[in-house]
């Protein structure tokens, strides 16, 4: 059975990855602007003063403009750094901070590294996803970093995943270790799952 789920996940990820790669620059720009507006409104409604957020890749809905705006408003932002052991370290984002290629070719901050428990102090987590289903279950990209992080937090604050509108789907294949999210942010909407408690 786990093999069936793994195969389903692989197939869905491949399809989603391909769809992302064929998006036009105009569609990407529009998605980035929409995501920024949605995330700005989410910050406002939650009153968060300390957040974690990922640095988007070229095919993800962009979080870069949102991050710059959050820093200008004095929000403390932690950015994830992948480790070989499957855990995430964190670094405090700065307006002029350097970005380098981390494990798996992902953009990651350069600077003082904080350990995995640093994220326990944030008010809101903004994480990447391949897809989110209507129950709040998240399909990640298969490395398990965010599932491990969410699963190990003593007191998990609200967690919102950023995806394109078409990636908010009826259902995603899930294993026991997969973690749900509090809500989803797309370029056109923010949706909070009423029954979700992490």
Please tell me about this protein's structure.
The chain is an alpha/beta fold. It has one domain: Rossmann fold. Helices cover 30% and strands 22% of the residues. It has four helices and twelve strands. It has helices at residues 2-21, 25-46, 64-72, 145-152, and strands at 50-53, 76-82, 88-92, 99-101, 107-109, 124-128, 131-133, 138-139, 159-162, 168-169, 183-185, 190-192. Strands 3-2-1-6-9-11-12 form a seven-stranded mixed sheet. A three-stranded mixed sheet has the order 8-7-10. A hairpin with a 5-residue loop joins strand 2 and strand 3 (88-92). Helix 2 packs parallel to helix 3 (64-72). The longest helix has 22 residues, at 25-46. It is globular. It starts with a helix and ends in a 6-residue tail after the last strand. The model has no long low-confidence stretch (mean pLDDT 91).
Outline of this structure?
This protein has 198 residues and is an alpha/beta fold.
Write the topology of this structure.
Elements: H1 2-21, H2 25-46, E1 50-53, H3 64-72, E2 76-82, E3 88-92, E4 99-101, E5 107-109, E6 124-128, E7 131-133, E8 138-139, H4 145-152, E9 159-162, E10 168-169, E11 183-185, E12 190-192
Parallel strand pairs: 1-2, 1-6, 6-9, 7-10, 9-11
Antiparallel strand pairs: 2-3, 4-5, 7-8, 11-12
Keywords: ATP-binding, Ligase, Magnesium, Metal-binding, Nucleotide-binding
Binding site for ATP: 9-13
Organism: Microbacterium halimionae
Output mean pLDDT. 91
Order of helices and strands: HHEHEEEEEEEHEEEE
Strand order of the largest sheet: 3-2-1-6-9-11-12
Distance between the termini: 26 Å
The CATH class turns out to be Alpha Beta
Please mark out the parts with pLDDT under 50 across 5 or more consecutive residues, or reply none. none
Beta percentage is 15-25%
The residue fraction in helices comes out at: 25-40%
Rounded to the nearest angstrom, the radius of gyration is: 16 Å
Shape: globular
For CATH, the homologous superfamily is named as NagB/RpiA/CoA transferase-like
Summarize the biggest pleated sheet.
Answer: 7 strands, mixed
Determine the structural class based on helices, strands and strand pairing.
alpha/beta
